[in-house]
């Protein structure tokens, strides 16, 4: 019989969690109740908060005595983050659900993020209708808005909670184990302005028997790719669109953080890297562009996205960040440079064409990688030329 872990503060949210527990058990599944509350629980849990705290060497009684909610939340979050993946590895549950406000969500989701991709995870939260990236990260947590506060049982909350219970039951009961077809799984990065390149490379790789996961380089995409590489899913990387570094360095809205371009290198995964869309920084609608950039070369990509052309000085800094990370790679790494343009709008006659700025980028990369083990391949094409795309795909196959 399948088991759902019901995680939460069984002191302050005891009756709500009990309702979810009963909804799940009514459908024939077992539950494993894990308490992250500090005080006396409404329902006796299967795993107490004392056990959760002990997972990180803490004493729940000492926490209670302090009567400091912030400290208690921090300790129990760390304990849950350590304990939940252990319990899953031991086969104690098949899926997990929790409810909470900002505190409960911050407590439960770090533990959920530690579970493998595909393990059913449902979080009913007051925070689910806003920016959920701090809670979901690069995982596959399903966030369900609680609509009303996750406090008390009423005509609205019962509907939300029962729907959430039904969701986790359906995920657990009907989870499909996907059998690999044996083809090596590769990762590729793409942006709208590098789509022809990546599509051509992807088609070639498919013809050669490889499966390709394409990630949209919008910050979240880059983070997700790095996470899957770290988790061992990816055997090779075609990182042709490194544009997220523009936003990281200059201050755009689609950055992927300072760990971008590190996972393949530290895990020894073969990678072919290029400079796709390094001609642009991303902002929202035109009226959201910061004042200091109003006189720059701006391009309205669509009503919600405004692009700003990177300068030579910015590209020197971006090139330095990329070179630093590639130089540290432990696996086979090739950098490919398209000398006639790094995006669809960075070719002669297009609004972001700036050969001199691109040259600064190329020169920075050449200079800083001169004494490294990184192979540099230069083609006298733009990035979306099919010749460049196929050459990149062939290079990755040779590294594999």
Structure described in brief:
This protein is an alpha/beta fold. It is 40% helix and 18% strand. The chain contains 14 helices and 14 strands.
Features:
400 residues; alpha/beta; Rossmann fold; six-stranded parallel sheet; 40% helix; elongated
The proportion of residues in beta strands is 15-25%
CATH superfamily of the largest domain: Uncharacterised protein family UPF0261, NC domain
Helix content: 40-55%
Summing up helix and strand content along with how strands pair, one would put the structural category as alpha/beta
The main pleated sheet reads as: 6 strands, parallel
End-to-end CA span? 42 Å
Judging from the principal axes of the Cα atoms, what is the shape?
elongated
Protein name: UPF0261 family protein
InterPro entries: Tobamovirus_resist_UPF0261 (IPR051353), UPF0261 (IPR008322), UPF0261_C (IPR056778), UPF0261_N (IPR044122)
Organism: Mogibacterium kristiansenii
Domain UPF0261: 2-176, 184-399
Write up this protein.
By secondary structure, the chain is of the alpha/beta class. The protein folds into 2 domains: 171 residues, Rossmann fold (3-Layer(aba) Sandwich), CATH 3.40.50; 215 residues, Rossmann fold, CATH 3.40.50. It contains 14 helices and 14 strands. It has a 6-stranded parallel sheet, with helices on both faces. Strands 2-1-3-4-5 form a 5-stranded parallel sheet, sandwiched between helices. α1 packs across α7, α4 runs parallel beside α5 and α10 crosses α12.
């Amino acid at each position: 019989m399948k088991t759902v872990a019901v995680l939460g503060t069984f002191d302050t949210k005891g009756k709500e969690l009990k309702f979810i527990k009963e909804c799940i058990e009514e459908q024939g599944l077992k539950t494993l109740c894990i308490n992250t509350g500090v005080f006396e629980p409404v329902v006796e849990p299967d795993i107490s908060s004392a056990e959760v705290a002990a997972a990180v060497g803490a004493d729940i009684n000492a926490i209670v005595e302090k009567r400091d909610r912030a400290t208690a939340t921090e300790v129990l979050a760390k304990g849950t983050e350590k304990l939940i993946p252990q319990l899953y590895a031991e086969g104690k549950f098949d899926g997990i659900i929790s409810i909470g406000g900002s505190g409960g969500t911050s407590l439960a989701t770090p533990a959920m993020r530690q579970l493998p991709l595909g393990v059913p995870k449902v979080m009913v939260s007051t925070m689910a209708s806003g920016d959920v990236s701090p809670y979901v990260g690069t995982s596959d947590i399903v966030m369900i808005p609680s609509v009303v506060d996750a406090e008390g049982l009423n005509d609205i909350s019962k509907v939300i909670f029962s729907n959430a219970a039904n969701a986790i039951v359906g995920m657990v009961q009907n989870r499909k184990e996907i059998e690999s077809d044996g083809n090596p799984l590769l990762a590729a990065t793409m942006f709208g302005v590098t789509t022809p390149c990546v599509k051509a490379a992807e088609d070639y790789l498919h013809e050669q028997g490889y499966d390709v996961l394409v990630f949209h380089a919008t910050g979240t995409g880059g983070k997700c790719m790095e996470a899957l590489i770290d988790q061992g899913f990816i055997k090779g990387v075609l990182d042709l669109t490194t544009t997220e570094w523009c936003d990281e360095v200059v201050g755009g809205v689609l950055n992927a953080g300072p760990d971008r371009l590190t996972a393949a290198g530290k895990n020894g995964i073969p990678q072919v890297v290029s400079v796709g869309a390094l001609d642009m920084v991303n902002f929202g609608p035109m009226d959201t562009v910061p004042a200091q950039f109003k006189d720059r070369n701006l391009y309205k990509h669509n009503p919600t996205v405004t692009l700003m052309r990177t300068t030579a000085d910015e590209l020197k800094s971006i090139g330095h960040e990329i070179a630093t990370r590639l130089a540290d790679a432990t696996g086979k790494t090739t950098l490919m440079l398209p000398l006639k343009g790094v995006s669809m709008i960075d070719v002669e006659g297009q609004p972001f064409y700036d050969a001199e700025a691109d040259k600064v980028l190329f020169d920075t990369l050449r200079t800083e990688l001169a004494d490294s083990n990184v192979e540099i391949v230069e083609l006298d094409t733009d990035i979306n030329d099919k010749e460049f795309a196929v050459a990149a795909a062939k290079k990755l196959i040779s590294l594999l």
